Amino acid sequence: MTGFARTVWVITRKDLLVEARTREVLFTTLFFAISCVLVFAFGFVREGRPVSDAAAGILWIAIAFSGTLALGRVFERERHGETLRALLIAPIDRPALYVGKLVGILILLAAVEVVVVPLVALMFQAALFDHALLMVGLLAAGTVGFAAVGTLFAAMLVRARSRDVMLPILLYPITVPVIIAGVRGTAALLQPEGGLPMARAWLAMLVFFDVVFITLALWTFEPVMTE
Amino acid sequence: MKQTLFVPLTLVAAAMFAYAPFMILAAPYESTMGLVQKIFYFHAACGMALFLAAAVSGVGSAVFLFTKKPAADRLAVAGAELSVVIGLLVLVTGPLWAHKAWGVWWTWDVRITSTLVMWLIFNAYLLLRRYGGPGSERLAAAVSLFGLANVPFVYWSVNVWRTLHPKTSVIPTLQPGMRGTFWFCVGAFMLLSVVILMLRTELEKRRQELDALYLAAED
Fold first, then answer.
1. CB B206 within 8 A of CB B24
2. Within an 8 Å CB–CB cutoff, is residue B163 touching chain A?
3. How many CB pairs under 8 A join A and B?
4. Domain-located, residue B49
Protein backbone atom coordinates (compact mmCIF):
# COMPACT_ATOMS: atom_id res chain seq x y z
CA MET A 1 0.00 0.00 0.00
CA THR A 2 1.39 3.43 -0.85
CA GLY A 3 1.72 6.16 1.76
CA PHE A 4 -1.31 8.05 0.46
CA ALA A 5 -3.64 5.03 0.56
CA ARG A 6 -2.37 4.05 3.99
CA THR A 7 -3.04 7.53 5.40
CA VAL A 8 -6.54 7.51 3.91
CA TRP A 9 -7.21 4.09 5.44
CA VAL A 10 -5.90 5.13 8.88
CA ILE A 11 -8.12 8.22 8.96
CA THR A 12 -11.20 6.37 7.70
CA ARG A 13 -10.60 3.56 10.17
CA LYS A 14 -10.22 6.05 13.03
CA ASP A 15 -13.55 7.71 12.11
CA LEU A 16 -15.32 4.38 11.81
CA LEU A 17 -13.92 3.16 15.13
CA VAL A 18 -15.00 6.32 16.94
CA GLU A 19 -18.43 6.01 15.34
CA ALA A 20 -18.70 2.28 16.13
CA ARG A 21 -18.27 2.95 19.85
CA THR A 22 -21.35 5.17 20.21
CA ARG A 23 -23.04 4.92 16.75
CA GLU A 24 -24.29 8.43 17.56
CA VAL A 25 -24.03 10.00 14.10
CA LEU A 26 -25.36 6.91 12.33
CA PHE A 27 -28.45 6.49 14.51
CA THR A 28 -29.33 10.19 14.72
CA THR A 29 -28.84 10.71 10.97
CA LEU A 30 -30.84 7.62 10.13
CA PHE A 31 -33.69 8.64 12.38
CA PHE A 32 -33.60 12.16 10.97
CA ALA A 33 -33.79 10.79 7.39
CA ILE A 34 -36.76 8.60 8.30
CA SER A 35 -38.53 11.53 9.98
CA CYS A 36 -37.85 13.60 6.87
CA VAL A 37 -39.46 11.00 4.60
CA LEU A 38 -42.41 10.79 6.99
CA VAL A 39 -42.95 14.57 6.96
CA PHE A 40 -42.88 14.53 3.15
CA ALA A 41 -45.35 11.65 3.17
CA PHE A 42 -47.81 13.88 5.04
CA GLY A 43 -47.20 16.68 2.52
CA PHE A 44 -47.34 14.68 -0.70
CA VAL A 45 -49.79 11.83 -0.20
CA ARG A 46 -53.41 12.59 -1.12
CA GLU A 47 -56.15 10.11 -0.19
CA GLY A 48 -53.68 7.27 0.27
CA ARG A 49 -51.98 7.86 -3.11
CA PRO A 50 -48.62 9.62 -3.51
CA VAL A 51 -48.39 12.59 -5.88
CA SER A 52 -46.78 11.32 -9.10
CA ASP A 53 -43.02 11.95 -9.37
CA ALA A 54 -42.83 12.83 -5.66
CA ALA A 55 -40.69 9.80 -4.71
CA ALA A 56 -37.56 10.94 -6.59
CA GLY A 57 -37.62 14.42 -5.07
CA ILE A 58 -38.35 13.15 -1.56
CA LEU A 59 -35.52 10.60 -1.73
CA TRP A 60 -32.92 13.17 -2.75
CA ILE A 61 -34.09 15.85 -0.34
CA ALA A 62 -33.90 13.29 2.48
CA ILE A 63 -30.35 12.39 1.40
CA ALA A 64 -29.27 16.05 1.14
CA PHE A 65 -30.79 17.02 4.51
CA SER A 66 -29.48 14.04 6.44
CA GLY A 67 -26.11 14.37 4.68
CA THR A 68 -25.81 17.97 5.90
CA LEU A 69 -26.64 16.84 9.42
CA ALA A 70 -24.08 14.00 9.33
CA LEU A 71 -21.35 16.30 7.96
CA GLY A 72 -21.98 18.83 10.70
CA ARG A 73 -21.97 16.15 13.44
CA VAL A 74 -18.80 14.40 12.21
CA PHE A 75 -16.80 17.63 12.20
CA GLU A 76 -18.37 18.88 15.42
CA ARG A 77 -16.86 15.80 17.05
CA GLU A 78 -13.45 16.72 15.63
CA ARG A 79 -13.85 20.29 16.87
CA HIS A 80 -15.03 19.24 20.30
CA GLY A 81 -11.99 17.04 20.88
CA GLU A 82 -9.62 19.53 19.20
CA THR A 83 -8.63 16.54 17.10
CA LEU A 84 -8.83 18.25 13.70
CA ARG A 85 -5.96 20.50 14.76
CA ALA A 86 -3.99 17.40 15.77
CA LEU A 87 -4.68 15.87 12.36
CA LEU A 88 -3.55 19.08 10.64
CA ILE A 89 -0.33 19.14 12.68
CA ALA A 90 0.40 15.49 11.79
CA PRO A 91 3.03 15.07 9.04
CA ILE A 92 0.58 13.69 6.46
CA ASP A 93 -0.59 14.83 3.05
CA ARG A 94 -3.51 17.24 3.31
CA PRO A 95 -5.29 15.64 0.31
CA ALA A 96 -5.03 12.23 2.06
CA LEU A 97 -6.67 13.76 5.13
CA TYR A 98 -9.51 15.09 2.97
CA VAL A 99 -10.02 11.77 1.18
CA GLY A 100 -9.96 9.88 4.50
CA LYS A 101 -12.72 12.07 5.95
CA LEU A 102 -14.68 11.84 2.67
CA VAL A 103 -14.56 8.02 2.64
CA GLY A 104 -15.74 7.88 6.25
CA ILE A 105 -18.71 10.13 5.50
CA LEU A 106 -19.55 8.16 2.34
CA ILE A 107 -19.69 4.89 4.32
CA LEU A 108 -21.97 6.57 6.86
CA LEU A 109 -24.29 7.95 4.16
CA ALA A 110 -24.33 4.59 2.35
CA ALA A 111 -25.55 2.96 5.57
CA VAL A 112 -28.32 5.58 5.81
CA GLU A 113 -29.32 5.07 2.16
CA VAL A 114 -29.58 1.29 2.62
CA VAL A 115 -32.56 2.01 4.90
CA VAL A 116 -33.99 5.16 3.33
CA VAL A 117 -34.15 4.04 -0.32
CA PRO A 118 -36.29 0.91 0.35
CA LEU A 119 -38.40 2.99 2.72
CA VAL A 120 -39.17 5.56 0.01
CA ALA A 121 -39.84 2.74 -2.48
CA LEU A 122 -42.27 1.18 -0.01
CA MET A 123 -44.07 4.32 1.20
CA PHE A 124 -44.45 6.00 -2.19
CA GLN A 125 -45.04 2.85 -4.26
CA ALA A 126 -42.01 3.71 -6.40
CA ALA A 127 -40.32 0.99 -8.46
CA LEU A 128 -36.82 2.12 -7.49
CA PHE A 129 -35.35 -1.38 -7.88
CA ASP A 130 -36.53 -2.18 -11.42
CA HIS A 131 -33.20 -0.90 -12.76
CA ALA A 132 -31.20 -1.57 -9.61
CA LEU A 133 -27.76 -1.08 -11.16
CA LEU A 134 -28.54 2.35 -12.61
CA MET A 135 -30.25 3.37 -9.37
CA VAL A 136 -27.20 2.36 -7.35
CA GLY A 137 -25.01 4.26 -9.84
CA LEU A 138 -27.10 7.42 -9.47
CA LEU A 139 -27.10 7.12 -5.67
CA ALA A 140 -23.34 6.52 -5.53
CA ALA A 141 -22.40 9.31 -7.95
CA GLY A 142 -24.85 11.76 -6.36
CA THR A 143 -23.75 11.01 -2.81
CA VAL A 144 -20.07 11.32 -3.78
CA GLY A 145 -20.73 14.70 -5.40
CA PHE A 146 -22.69 15.99 -2.42
CA ALA A 147 -20.19 14.66 0.14
CA ALA A 148 -17.13 15.86 -1.85
CA VAL A 149 -18.26 19.50 -1.60
CA GLY A 150 -19.75 18.94 1.87
CA THR A 151 -16.59 17.46 3.40
CA LEU A 152 -14.45 20.38 2.23
CA PHE A 153 -16.95 22.99 3.46
CA ALA A 154 -17.66 21.26 6.77
CA ALA A 155 -13.91 20.92 7.39
CA MET A 156 -13.18 24.55 6.64
CA LEU A 157 -16.15 25.78 8.69
CA VAL A 158 -14.86 24.04 11.83
CA ARG A 159 -13.02 27.23 12.76
CA ALA A 160 -15.79 29.62 11.66
CA ARG A 161 -18.51 31.16 13.77
CA SER A 162 -22.19 30.25 13.14
CA ARG A 163 -20.97 27.11 11.33
CA ASP A 164 -24.23 25.20 11.87
CA VAL A 165 -26.22 27.53 9.67
CA MET A 166 -23.35 28.33 7.30
CA LEU A 167 -22.97 24.73 6.09
CA PRO A 168 -26.41 24.42 4.43
CA ILE A 169 -26.26 28.03 3.20
CA LEU A 170 -23.02 27.32 1.33
CA LEU A 171 -23.68 23.70 0.43
CA TYR A 172 -27.16 23.81 -1.11
CA PRO A 173 -26.60 26.44 -3.83
CA ILE A 174 -23.38 24.70 -4.90
CA THR A 175 -24.90 21.22 -4.96
CA VAL A 176 -27.94 22.32 -7.00
CA PRO A 177 -26.66 20.33 -10.04
CA VAL A 178 -26.39 17.16 -7.89
CA ILE A 179 -29.96 17.56 -6.66
CA ILE A 180 -31.33 18.28 -10.15
CA ALA A 181 -29.41 15.38 -11.71
CA GLY A 182 -30.29 12.97 -8.89
CA VAL A 183 -33.98 13.84 -8.94
CA ARG A 184 -34.31 13.93 -12.74
CA GLY A 185 -32.28 10.73 -13.16
CA THR A 186 -34.37 8.88 -10.57
CA ALA A 187 -37.60 10.24 -12.06
CA ALA A 188 -36.46 9.01 -15.50
CA LEU A 189 -35.91 5.53 -14.04
CA LEU A 190 -39.43 5.57 -12.58
CA GLN A 191 -41.03 6.27 -15.96
CA PRO A 192 -42.85 3.22 -17.35
CA GLU A 193 -40.72 3.25 -20.54
CA GLY A 194 -38.08 5.21 -22.44
CA GLY A 195 -36.42 6.77 -19.41
CA LEU A 196 -33.18 4.78 -19.47
CA PRO A 197 -31.12 6.92 -21.93
CA MET A 198 -32.07 10.02 -19.92
CA ALA A 199 -31.08 8.35 -16.64
CA ARG A 200 -27.72 7.41 -18.18
CA ALA A 201 -27.17 11.01 -19.33
CA TRP A 202 -27.82 12.28 -15.80
CA LEU A 203 -25.49 9.63 -14.38
CA ALA A 204 -22.74 10.76 -16.77
CA MET A 205 -23.27 14.37 -15.71
CA LEU A 206 -23.03 13.35 -12.02
CA VAL A 207 -19.76 11.48 -12.64
CA PHE A 208 -18.35 14.51 -14.45
CA PHE A 209 -19.44 16.75 -11.57
CA ASP A 210 -17.74 14.37 -9.09
CA VAL A 211 -14.46 14.44 -11.01
CA VAL A 212 -14.37 18.25 -11.28
CA PHE A 213 -15.36 18.93 -7.68
CA ILE A 214 -13.11 16.28 -6.08
CA THR A 215 -10.19 17.69 -8.09
CA LEU A 216 -11.07 21.23 -6.98
CA ALA A 217 -11.46 20.12 -3.35
CA LEU A 218 -8.10 18.31 -3.32
CA TRP A 219 -6.56 21.44 -4.81
CA THR A 220 -8.14 23.92 -2.37
CA PHE A 221 -8.06 21.81 0.82
CA GLU A 222 -4.46 22.74 1.58
CA PRO A 223 -4.72 26.57 1.27
CA VAL A 224 -8.14 26.62 2.98
CA MET A 225 -7.08 24.55 5.98
CA THR A 226 -3.75 26.30 6.56
CA GLU A 227 -3.93 28.98 9.23
CA MET B 1 -3.61 57.17 -11.15
CA LYS B 2 -6.76 55.48 -9.91
CA GLN B 3 -7.69 58.59 -7.92
CA THR B 4 -7.34 60.87 -10.95
CA LEU B 5 -9.44 58.57 -13.15
CA PHE B 6 -12.25 58.13 -10.63
CA VAL B 7 -13.94 61.55 -10.88
CA PRO B 8 -14.02 61.81 -14.70
CA LEU B 9 -15.25 58.21 -15.02
CA THR B 10 -18.02 58.88 -12.51
CA LEU B 11 -19.08 62.00 -14.39
CA VAL B 12 -19.15 60.15 -17.72
CA ALA B 13 -21.18 57.32 -16.19
CA ALA B 14 -23.64 59.81 -14.67
CA ALA B 15 -24.01 61.61 -18.01
CA MET B 16 -24.58 58.31 -19.83
CA PHE B 17 -27.30 57.30 -17.35
CA ALA B 18 -28.95 60.71 -17.71
CA TYR B 19 -29.01 60.38 -21.49
CA ALA B 20 -29.93 56.66 -21.67
CA PRO B 21 -33.72 57.15 -21.08
CA PHE B 22 -33.90 59.54 -24.07
CA MET B 23 -32.15 57.01 -26.31
CA ILE B 24 -34.45 54.23 -25.10
CA LEU B 25 -37.47 56.47 -25.73
CA ALA B 26 -36.29 57.18 -29.27
CA ALA B 27 -35.52 53.53 -30.09
CA PRO B 28 -38.10 51.76 -32.31
CA TYR B 29 -40.89 49.69 -30.77
CA GLU B 30 -40.48 45.93 -30.96
CA SER B 31 -43.24 44.56 -33.20
CA THR B 32 -44.80 41.91 -30.92
CA MET B 33 -44.03 43.07 -27.37
CA GLY B 34 -44.30 46.86 -27.84
CA LEU B 35 -43.44 49.15 -24.95
CA VAL B 36 -42.58 46.42 -22.46
CA GLN B 37 -39.63 45.28 -24.59
CA LYS B 38 -37.81 48.51 -23.63
CA ILE B 39 -36.89 47.04 -20.26
CA PHE B 40 -34.51 44.85 -22.28
CA TYR B 41 -32.00 47.73 -22.57
CA PHE B 42 -31.44 47.72 -18.82
CA HIS B 43 -32.13 44.03 -18.16
CA ALA B 44 -29.59 42.58 -20.61
CA ALA B 45 -27.04 45.33 -19.88
CA CYS B 46 -27.31 44.50 -16.16
CA GLY B 47 -26.86 40.84 -17.04
CA MET B 48 -23.58 41.65 -18.80
CA ALA B 49 -22.39 43.80 -15.89
CA LEU B 50 -23.27 40.90 -13.57
CA PHE B 51 -20.94 38.62 -15.53
CA LEU B 52 -18.18 41.24 -15.24
CA ALA B 53 -18.65 41.55 -11.46
CA ALA B 54 -18.85 37.77 -10.95
CA ALA B 55 -15.72 37.18 -13.04
CA VAL B 56 -13.81 39.85 -11.08
CA SER B 57 -14.86 38.22 -7.82
CA GLY B 58 -14.06 34.68 -8.98
CA VAL B 59 -10.63 35.53 -10.38
CA GLY B 60 -9.83 37.67 -7.33
CA SER B 61 -10.83 34.80 -5.02
CA ALA B 62 -8.73 32.23 -6.88
CA VAL B 63 -5.67 34.50 -6.83
CA PHE B 64 -6.20 35.30 -3.15
CA LEU B 65 -6.63 31.63 -2.20
CA PHE B 66 -3.31 30.59 -3.72
CA THR B 67 -1.15 33.72 -3.30
CA LYS B 68 -2.71 35.32 -0.18
CA LYS B 69 -2.37 38.78 -1.75
CA PRO B 70 -4.70 41.18 0.12
CA ALA B 71 -5.27 43.22 -3.07
CA ALA B 72 -6.89 40.16 -4.72
CA ASP B 73 -9.19 39.74 -1.73
CA ARG B 74 -10.27 43.38 -1.96
CA LEU B 75 -11.21 42.87 -5.62
CA ALA B 76 -13.03 39.64 -4.71
CA VAL B 77 -15.20 41.26 -2.05
CA ALA B 78 -15.93 44.30 -4.25
CA GLY B 79 -16.95 41.99 -7.11
CA ALA B 80 -19.13 39.87 -4.83
CA GLU B 81 -21.01 42.86 -3.40
CA LEU B 82 -21.53 44.30 -6.86
CA SER B 83 -22.77 40.89 -8.08
CA VAL B 84 -25.39 40.82 -5.34
CA VAL B 85 -26.64 44.34 -6.16
CA ILE B 86 -26.63 43.96 -9.95
CA GLY B 87 -27.96 40.42 -9.65
CA LEU B 88 -30.92 41.83 -7.75
CA LEU B 89 -31.52 44.32 -10.60
CA VAL B 90 -31.43 41.46 -13.13
CA LEU B 91 -33.75 39.31 -11.03
CA VAL B 92 -36.24 42.17 -10.58
CA THR B 93 -36.27 43.48 -14.16
CA GLY B 94 -36.53 39.92 -15.53
CA PRO B 95 -39.86 38.98 -13.91
CA LEU B 96 -41.31 42.42 -14.75
CA TRP B 97 -40.64 41.71 -18.40
CA ALA B 98 -41.56 38.02 -18.21
CA HIS B 99 -44.96 38.81 -16.67
CA LYS B 100 -45.92 40.89 -19.73
CA ALA B 101 -44.12 38.84 -22.40
CA TRP B 102 -44.68 35.25 -21.22
CA GLY B 103 -47.62 35.77 -18.82
CA VAL B 104 -45.73 34.39 -15.81
CA TRP B 105 -43.58 36.14 -13.22
CA TRP B 106 -41.14 33.29 -12.86
CA THR B 107 -40.22 30.19 -14.79
CA TRP B 108 -37.53 27.58 -14.08
CA ASP B 109 -35.64 28.37 -17.23
CA VAL B 110 -31.90 27.75 -17.56
CA ARG B 111 -30.67 31.35 -17.57
CA ILE B 112 -33.05 32.43 -14.84
CA THR B 113 -32.21 29.46 -12.61
CA SER B 114 -28.47 29.74 -13.12
CA THR B 115 -28.57 33.49 -12.43
CA LEU B 116 -30.53 32.82 -9.24
CA VAL B 117 -28.09 30.11 -8.11
CA MET B 118 -25.10 32.35 -8.86
CA TRP B 119 -26.76 35.18 -6.95
CA LEU B 120 -27.39 32.86 -3.98
CA ILE B 121 -23.73 31.77 -4.00
CA PHE B 122 -22.52 35.37 -3.84
CA ASN B 123 -24.98 36.06 -1.02
CA ALA B 124 -23.58 33.03 0.82
CA TYR B 125 -20.08 34.39 0.19
CA LEU B 126 -20.99 37.72 1.81
CA LEU B 127 -22.83 36.04 4.71
CA LEU B 128 -19.78 33.87 5.40
CA ARG B 129 -17.46 36.89 5.35
CA ARG B 130 -19.72 38.86 7.65
CA TYR B 131 -20.69 36.18 10.17
CA GLY B 132 -17.92 33.61 9.78
CA GLY B 133 -15.52 35.28 12.20
CA PRO B 134 -11.78 35.75 11.73
CA GLY B 135 -10.12 33.99 8.81
CA SER B 136 -13.37 33.66 6.86
CA GLU B 137 -11.93 35.55 3.84
CA ARG B 138 -10.03 32.43 2.84
CA LEU B 139 -13.07 30.19 3.30
CA ALA B 140 -15.21 32.64 1.33
CA ALA B 141 -12.63 32.57 -1.48
CA ALA B 142 -13.07 28.79 -1.73
CA VAL B 143 -16.86 29.25 -1.87
CA SER B 144 -16.46 31.74 -4.71
CA LEU B 145 -14.17 29.35 -6.61
CA PHE B 146 -16.63 26.46 -6.20
CA GLY B 147 -19.49 28.75 -7.15
CA LEU B 148 -17.77 29.71 -10.38
CA ALA B 149 -17.00 26.06 -11.25
CA ASN B 150 -20.64 25.29 -10.55
CA VAL B 151 -22.13 27.62 -13.18
CA PRO B 152 -21.58 25.32 -16.23
CA PHE B 153 -23.15 22.39 -14.36
CA VAL B 154 -26.22 24.37 -13.32
CA TYR B 155 -26.49 25.67 -16.86
CA TRP B 156 -26.31 22.21 -18.41
CA SER B 157 -28.69 20.58 -15.95
CA VAL B 158 -31.39 23.20 -16.22
CA ASN B 159 -30.96 23.35 -19.98
CA VAL B 160 -31.77 19.65 -20.23
CA TRP B 161 -34.58 20.10 -17.75
CA ARG B 162 -36.44 22.98 -19.47
CA THR B 163 -35.86 26.28 -21.25
CA LEU B 164 -37.80 29.37 -22.40
CA HIS B 165 -35.51 32.42 -22.17
CA PRO B 166 -34.30 33.94 -25.47
CA LYS B 167 -30.75 33.04 -26.45
CA THR B 168 -27.85 35.50 -26.61
CA SER B 169 -27.97 35.13 -30.38
CA VAL B 170 -30.80 37.72 -30.47
CA ILE B 171 -28.29 40.50 -29.80
CA PRO B 172 -26.47 40.52 -33.20
CA THR B 173 -29.85 40.40 -34.95
CA LEU B 174 -31.21 43.55 -33.28
CA GLN B 175 -32.65 46.26 -35.51
CA PRO B 176 -30.21 49.14 -36.20
CA GLY B 177 -32.11 51.63 -34.00
CA MET B 178 -32.13 49.18 -31.09
CA ARG B 179 -28.54 48.08 -31.46
CA GLY B 180 -26.98 51.51 -30.76
CA THR B 181 -29.20 52.08 -27.74
CA PHE B 182 -28.45 48.61 -26.39
CA TRP B 183 -24.67 48.95 -26.59
CA PHE B 184 -24.91 52.46 -25.11
CA CYS B 185 -26.74 51.00 -22.09
CA VAL B 186 -24.20 48.17 -21.83
CA GLY B 187 -21.42 50.77 -21.82
CA ALA B 188 -23.20 52.79 -19.12
CA PHE B 189 -23.62 49.76 -16.84
CA MET B 190 -20.07 48.55 -17.45
CA LEU B 191 -18.66 51.98 -16.63
CA LEU B 192 -20.82 52.20 -13.51
CA SER B 193 -19.59 48.77 -12.45
CA VAL B 194 -15.96 49.77 -12.94
CA VAL B 195 -16.50 52.98 -10.92
CA ILE B 196 -18.20 51.06 -8.08
CA LEU B 197 -15.48 48.38 -8.10
CA MET B 198 -12.78 51.07 -7.85
CA LEU B 199 -14.60 52.81 -5.01
CA ARG B 200 -15.27 49.59 -3.11
CA THR B 201 -11.70 48.23 -3.39
CA GLU B 202 -10.37 51.59 -2.16
CA LEU B 203 -12.84 51.51 0.75
CA GLU B 204 -11.81 47.94 1.62
CA LYS B 205 -8.15 48.95 1.48
CA ARG B 206 -8.74 51.78 3.97
CA ARG B 207 -10.80 49.45 6.18
CA GLN B 208 -7.95 46.94 6.26
CA GLU B 209 -5.46 49.73 7.04
CA LEU B 210 -7.70 50.94 9.86
CA ASP B 211 -7.94 47.40 11.26
CA ALA B 212 -4.16 47.10 11.17
CA LEU B 213 -3.83 50.44 12.99
CA TYR B 214 -6.31 49.35 15.68
CA LEU B 215 -4.36 46.13 16.19
CA ALA B 216 -1.08 48.07 16.39
CA ALA B 217 -2.56 50.53 18.93
CA GLU B 218 -3.80 47.66 21.11
CA ASP B 219 -0.39 45.96 21.23
1. no
2. no
3. 87
4. yes
